[in-house]
Amino acid sequence: MSFRQALESGKFMVTAEVGPGKGTDVEHLLKDADIIKNRVDAINVTDLQSSVMRLGSMAICHLLTDMGVDPIFQVTCRDRNRLALQSDLLSGWVLGIRNVLALTGDHPTLGDHPRAKPVFDLDSVTLLEVIGKLNSGLDMSGNELKGVPDLLPGAVVNPGADNEAALDLQIMKMEKKIEAGARFFQTQGVYDLDVFEKFMKRVEGFNTKVLGGIILLKSVGMARYMNKNVAGVFVPEPLIQELKGAEDKAQASMNIAVRLVKGMKDICDGVHIMALGWESKIPPILDEAGV
Amino acid sequence: MIIAEQKPLAEIQDMVAPYRKILLVGCGTCMTFCSAGGPEQVNELAGTLLSENKNKVIEKTTIPRQCAVKFIDRLENKVGDHEAILSMACGNGVQAVASRFPDKPVLPALNTQFIGVEKEPGVWTENCLACGDCILWRTGGICPVTRCAKSLLNGACGGASGGKCEVSKDCPCAWQEIYHALKRLNMLHYLKEKPQVKDWPIHPGRVVREDLRGEVLS
């Protein structure tokens, strides 16, 4: 079943993600993808995540299609202007990519080439509009395409925005993204199901599907680091203590993930699990959560 | 106004090294207000350069603006046998002086930063990118093209934390500021408008006002 079919079937969806590394070595990444490929509806491939120069998303998406995986091509607006974005969307389609996640992208200052010129010619909303336009057979300037893609556009939202203004802005932008064609949303990592449920109540009635983000907690240090440095991610102290007190940290992390998956089954349309190298833990987590 | 900062002294010394007689020119408007190239800084820089190299001859002067021919003309009699002009203007002033005196090397003593305001004593912030299509009426008087690090036009990204931009804890999220401003003004509906795509300006810019030209071209 393709990701589009999964989305349209109304089933509880599971997506995961892999991040290409710096260099041409793809062995580990493809192995990670292979471990989970029969348990997920799609695998996202990140686009120069955290503004660090890496192997590209399109190439890995293509390799995943060769393995029978339906990839979600993450496309940020950080490094490409409207010409390059449209061209890459068409190129991706030709290489077998069917799903696109439209993102603004982190600022270059966050990465390893901090003084690179940021592009941001389009943003996530206008990129979604462009995908719709390409799907309709036209480029952004209204020129006709010879051969037309049929990309499934998605977007992201941050339910954990840390103040009222930030959350209102997230929700307003989410509405704009839906109007611009976003068929699904994958959220930033969620650890507090109450906060997430409140968010889902606010977006009830929005004509889209939401996959709740779950980032596997690999250590106490990682949890504290994210609380301090990753916008919109907040690991509550009791979870940190649970991890700290556990003899088997990996098992404790999996227990937390299982609870989140179970909780999300009643709240949203799927989960997006960011395993960060712990892909082998995804199948047992899904087993335990009954997904 | 335009905000600039003095270049590192070593770089200025490198630039002036080949020349003995130098005309050091301050700028009386923006550069004076931002304490980068007014009469005070002209005195200080001349003193420093002379203390480092006693052989130099430095004549000091400040004109009201280095970006207007009528003021640059006042330098005509002073340029004389100076080997170089060291300008304490913004990049605009340096170029205007250079084009007026094409046979003299005109050296920039400052690094021009941006169009901005003095936020508090000693702190300046950028406000305008001169993008050629002002939308401040829809954004509560806060420019997202300039003050959002990603120049986003259709709302915030997800990168803000504690109201601050992901690029710097010293930089407020422009979109949160816009949100508060529009809320205060009862104009939040502007945030829900149709998505905008920007027509980016083509450089170098050129503004032509036919009504002000000497002769209208037919």
Overall shape of chain A: it is: globular
Instruction: Briefly note the CATH topology name of chain A.
Output: TIM Barrel
- Distance between the ends of chain A: 16 Å
| Main sheet record of chain B | 4 strands, parallel
CATH class of chain A: Alpha Beta
Uncertain spans of chain A, ≥5 residues at pLDDT below 50? none
Structural class of chain A: alpha/beta
What is the CATH C-level name of the largest domain in chain B?
A: Alpha Beta
- From the alpha carbons, calculate the radius of gyration of chain B and give it in angstroms: 22 Å
Structural class of chain B: alpha/beta
The largest inter-chain interface, given as chain pair and residues per side, is: A-B, 38 and 30 residues
How much is the average pLDDT of chain A? 97
Order of helices and strands of chain A: HEHEHEHEHEHEHEHHHEH
Question: What is the percentage of strand-forming residues of chain A?
Answer: 15-25%
Strand elements of chain A, count? 8
Approximately how much helix is present in the residues of chain B?
25-40%
Total helices of chain A: the number is 11
Q: Which strand order do you get reading across the main beta sheet of chain B?
A: 3-2-4-5
Task: Give the number of helices of chain B.
Answer: 8
The ordered H/E elements of chain B are: EHEHHEHHEHEEEHEEH
Short description:
The complex is a heterodimer of chains A (291) and B (218). By secondary structure, chain A is an alpha/beta fold.
Folded structure, characterized:
The complex is a heterodimer of chains A (291) and B (218). Chain A is an alpha/beta fold. Chain A contains eleven helices and eight strands. An eight-stranded parallel β-barrel of chain A has the order 1-2-3-4-5-6-7-8, surrounded by seven helices. In chain A, helix 4 (82-94) packs across helix 5 (124-135) and helix 10 (249-265) crosses helix 11 (282-289). The model of chain A has no long low-confidence stretch (mean pLDDT 97). Chain B folds into two domains: 2-113, Response regulator (Rossmann fold), CATH 3.40.50; 129-192, no CATH class. Chain B contains eight helices and nine strands. In chain B, strands 3-2-4-5 form a four-stranded parallel β-sheet, sandwiched between helices. Chain B is elongated, with a radius of gyration of 22 Å. Classes of the chains: A alpha/beta (291), B alpha/beta (218). At the A-B interface, helix 5 and helix 6 of A face helix 8 of B.
